[in-house]
Amino acid sequence: MKWKWFPHIEKRVMSDTTSRVPQGAARRDLAPATRPELTADVAVIGAGILGTAIAAAAAARGLRTVVVDRLGGAGLGSTSASAGIIRVHAEDYASSVMAHESLFAWRAWRDHARVPARDPAAVFVECGTLVLDAASDFSLRIAQVMDEAQVGYRVVGASEMRERWPDLELGRFGGPFTADDPAFWDDPRGEIDSAVYTPSSGYVADPMLAAQNLAGLARCHGATFVWGQPVVSIARRGDHVEGLRLGDGRRIAAETVVNAAGPASGQVNALAGVGSDFAIRTTPVREELHHVPLPDSMALARTGIHLVDSDLGTNFRTDGKALLIGSNGAACDPPQILSDPDEFAVDPSRALWEQSVLRVAKRLPGLPVPRQRQGVAGVYDVSDDWIPIYDRTDLGGFYVAIGTSGHEFKTAPVTGDLLVGMILHGLDGHDQDTDPYQYVAPNTGRVIDTATFSRRRSPHTATGGRG
Fold it and tell me: Does domain 126-201+282-383 have CATH number 3.30.9.10?
């Protein structure tokens, strides 16, 4: 069935591609008078957790959907280097609402993604999140946002923390500090006497599998995937996108293209000639996650928790056998900005690994510090304010879902619907810049003004959505 919003695609594909190019227009278009091998209503560039979510949502609406990824399968890029955290706290209303709404999908993931009983499905472990401490500026901000978003949390005191998580040392270290700073080794001064606890938070241990599940859902709705091919050019006709050319020479005709290419999103935007009007920029940043085995004697091996610790600049989650440790992006831990997102060291560095593990060992005095480094390094696509850009661009039909790494895995089930709703909003004649799409969360009824994610927004003044 042809989607009613795209009655003109077939006519354009059959016509001579040179006859309608304005005089002097930039030539990114496809070879003249040749028929493309693939025709789509929506072409999605990138098959990470968000690209597959967008593809599934588009195909479910009856849109002919093609997904292109230069790697060999779903979730092999930055998604594979995700900690898979599903947390409901955030420093902005929209992100907290989206995370809370996404819980409905994560809790019933096999059904949500229609994963056959014979196939593996990602599993959401609802271990809860503990944010130290409740009196910090960060905690006060997230509590205010969760009140507004009507997301459940409570403040727990030191006595409850000792009872429920006896492995935790609640000393206040006054940091974070780097390991070469003498203050790093100081004894604690005072005690963290409270924390914000969100019992509905948790993690997915296999983020790549979640993306593969969504790719399966997209296929179930008729989407097509093209693997192992980079996008080498973006076709345009005047001020509107017309399709893609792949590395093997194939063409995909599409009236709508979504850039969900993760760390390569800047390169894709350059191919499309967009970005000059962006007030928010994205940057490829190398990030490390460190893996430390938990001894059976530690209670955390049984109870589990996702801990956000601004005092030490770390956050970690347990999986019953080990800790997965990441950075909170403290001022003393400058980002590792990459000039080329394809060129980076894949193994954890000794300096960062030791600093990360030693910081956590201060909070968990019973944690053995192993000599062997374990972990993974990946490239994140990071926006200036750690809030994603979900928006149109000044090239008609070309949309972006970028700046998402490190914090938007949790919202993927909602992001797909939101992006497709935004696309249809534009096709219905609305200007996203002046009349932004209002997304209504189907389970909670909360309304999200997508202007929050505009490419032209002023950077949010909070520290960002890490942890």
Answer: yes
